[in-house]
Amino acid sequence: MQVDNTPKRTLxxxxxxxxxxxxxxxxxxGDGLFETIKLMDGKLCYWQEHYRRLQTSAQxxxxxxxxxxxxxxDIRNLLQSSPDTGVIKIILTRGSGERGYAVSKTSxxxxxxxxxxxxxxxxxxxxxxxRAGFCQHRLSANPALAGIKHLNRLDxxxxxxxLDKGCQEGIMLDQQGRVxxxxxxxxxxxxxxxxxxxxxxxxxxDGVIRQQVLALAAEAGWSCRISxxxxxxxxxxxxxxxxxxLIGLWxxxxxxxxxxxxxxxxxxxxxQLARHEKDHATSL
Amino acid sequence: MQVDNTPKRTLxxxxxxxxxxxxxxxxxxGDGLFETIKLMDGKLCYWQEHYRRLQTSAQxxxxxxxxxxxxxxDIRNLLQSSPDTGVIKIILTRGSGERGYAVSKTSxxxxxxxxxxxxxxxxxxxxxxxRAGFCQHRLSANPALAGIKHLNRLDxxxxxxxLDKGCQEGIMLDQQGRVxxxxxxxxxxxxxxxxxxxxxxxxxxDGVIRQQVLALAAEAGWSCRISxxxxxxxxxxxxxxxxxxLIGLWxxxxxxxxxxxxxxxxxxxxxQLARHEKDHATSL
Lengths: 284, 284
Hints:
The first copy, chain A, is α+β, with helices and mostly antiparallel strands.
């Protein structure tokens, strides 16, 4: 992955800033949420879906979520002086507070909106597929937090950084040994013509692109199945691919010692997704 | 709890600062550790033990831990201009980095050392005991993270803030329904003369005071047992108490509908702990 040198720009509660209060609960407890959104030719891909997830997750964590228009104003401000393609990262924390887990009545959420350069992924990853492996570090189990894109991401960090260096993505298991997702993506596989993705019972992030892939596949008349998945299910798949908001879809060419012959389903879905993404991009 | 108005003072990497880089991985992923240390009459209580835990945990998370002397210099600097009693909070993160879970080779850990006022807990909590309840929100399960005082503390936040308002502390269960700890403390109970505390198999923080309580009780000839604990075990205990570095020991007078008659063991241990703490406080 190459990153260009366009400087990042960040707004904290609407104001240009590179520094955050050291008392923010986002730092002390990971007490917050985030979204990573692709900005393409001045348009935000799946903005409605990202905002809706942020709002729903904030409700679950009982963090007050600012209105959509407030984030849109921030993003418009960032776009005035910056390239029109890149990554918008939103972080919403419960704000600053006194020491201790109890939330003070006066604390106001912190809204961070950051524009940075789009990572330049190798074109071969899309055309020929990536190398993937199984991560040793497993995801923490908690049905009450499963699906939510919260800031407690130590599992993903530890899994990513103990993964074989030659791998572009790793497969993470939950505490039961079930397959959940990639370190930074959701996972799909094809077996006997059926599209499978793991149920997110105890862990995992319910990705915006995950939802789109399921909807597009169903629209195309494919059979789709969300269920418990074992490593053996993945190892005997006909095709495997990963999804996230920035990469789109990455087919897998090599999983541990296994070479996968086909990436055809992934490429067909990727083409559909590219069109759909354009139709669901918001001009602010 | 009352908090006095002595202003906080914070050093980030040794320099007075109230703001942290918005790119710090502590914020983005909870990628770091913390320690909360009691400062009493210019002396740091159990400083060796706190530093040792920080160092061991940093090794587990593969974060480079600065030498003890570096933290000691920070604390000496803070003490020059401040009251000699309060709370020292240390946060150690993996530092700033590019977007993404992968750790860049150039990233340097961030060292935050903060001095704030000692919370003034109600003297009745010690003399007559507190009210406690069971938390609905359960701890995430992950043996690879159990015991470590890391920054992924969303569980503690959610548990604390859904606890009955009249309770000073809540009891947290793991995903199996076993008792683990308090929201901000470790838990002990006495049953038929034996001191019990939960094993921290899948979750929980291995508190510095937890270790001291076990050692002091063993020294006094008490039988001690670390094992799996059910809510029923706690509900049928003769005595229950909580421990942490700031509160010391809090006996429980009321747990849900149950009134506990005795706080004698807790008070005996608390007196021993107060003496031991003084003997194990470090002058910097």
